[in-house]
């Protein structure tokens, strides 16, 4: 089964802002980037998207430009919940909170948020559910860097602590086989 993982395009957030599950918009212009993404996709597919606006705008564009048999938004595809750090500059997060998390982001929960292990568990739940069905068409997933890194770790058996070895650029399309 072919799966196309697509990270949303750049957001309107300034560089260095932690925005996780905050529903921020994408930066304009994005039309050319959307066209480039579309050129890398199959002509027919099943489509899933994070429900956050920065993914839905791209997913809607894809849905309107190729044959989509099914399109669903799934909360399990949302970026990591950064809790109290949402919309805070990484430089402004107190070091006594940030440093332990940076040393073990896999297991340490952000205050009022989640750990990477929790994100990975919901990502695996989504993948197991969607890939266990007899889907004959390719699957397109429009999501976030954290979700895509989690899927790539799952796919390659890369330890979660090494997830950032999976570089995922804005608007990047990554094709995998499962």
Draw up the topology in text.
Layout: E1 2-7, E2 17-18, H1 31-38, E3 44-49, H2 53-65, E4 67-73, E5 88-89, H3 95-103, H4 116-131, E6 139-143, H5 145-156, E7 173-177
Parallel strand pairs: 1-6, 3-4, 3-6
Antiparallel strand pairs: 1-7, 2-5
Question: What can you see in these coordinates?
Answer:
This protein has 178 residues and is an alpha/beta fold. Helix content is 33%, strand content 19%. The chain has helices spanning 31-38, 53-65, 95-103, 116-131, 145-156, and strands at residues 2-7, 17-18, 44-49, 67-73, 88-89, 139-143, 173-177. The strands form 2 sheets. Strands 4-3-6-1-7 form a 5-stranded mixed beta sheet. Helix 4 (116-131) crosses helix 5 (145-156). The model has no long low-confidence stretch (mean pLDDT 96).
Number of strands: 7
Cross-sheet strand order for the largest sheet: 4-3-6-1-7
Low-confidence stretches: none
Helix content: 25-40%
Give the strand content: 15-25%
How widely separated are the two ends? 5 Å
User: How would a textbook summarize the main sheet?
Assistant: 5 strands, mixed
The helix/strand class is alpha/beta
Backbone shape: globular
Mean pLDDT equals 96
Individual helix count: 5
Question: Secondary-structure element order, as H and E?
Answer: EEHEHEEHHEHE
Output the radius of gyration. Answer: 16 Å
């Amino acid at each position: 089964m072919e799966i196309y993982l697509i990270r949303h395009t750049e957001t309107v957030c300034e560089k260095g802002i932690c925005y996780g599950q905050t529903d921020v918009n994408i930066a304009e212009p994005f039309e050319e980037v959307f066209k480039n993404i579309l050129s890398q996709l199959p002509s027919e597919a099943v489509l899933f998207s994070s429900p956050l606006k920065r993914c839905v705008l791209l997913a809607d564009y894809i849905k309107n430009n190729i044959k989509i048999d099914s399109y669903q938004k799934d909360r399990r595809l949302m970026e990591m919940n950064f809790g109290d750090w949402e919309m805070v500059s990484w430089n402004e997060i107190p070091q006594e909170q940030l440093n332990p998390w940076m040393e073990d982001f896999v297991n340490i929960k952000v205050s009022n948020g989640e750990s990477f292990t929790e994100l990975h568990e919901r990502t695996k739940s989504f993948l197991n559910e969607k890939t266990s069905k007899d889907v004959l068409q390719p699957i397109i997933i429009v999501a976030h860097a954290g979700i895509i890194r989690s899927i790539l770790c799952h796919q390659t058996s890369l330890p979660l602590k090494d997830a950032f070895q999976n570089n995922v650029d804005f608007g990047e399309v990554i094709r995998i086989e499962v």
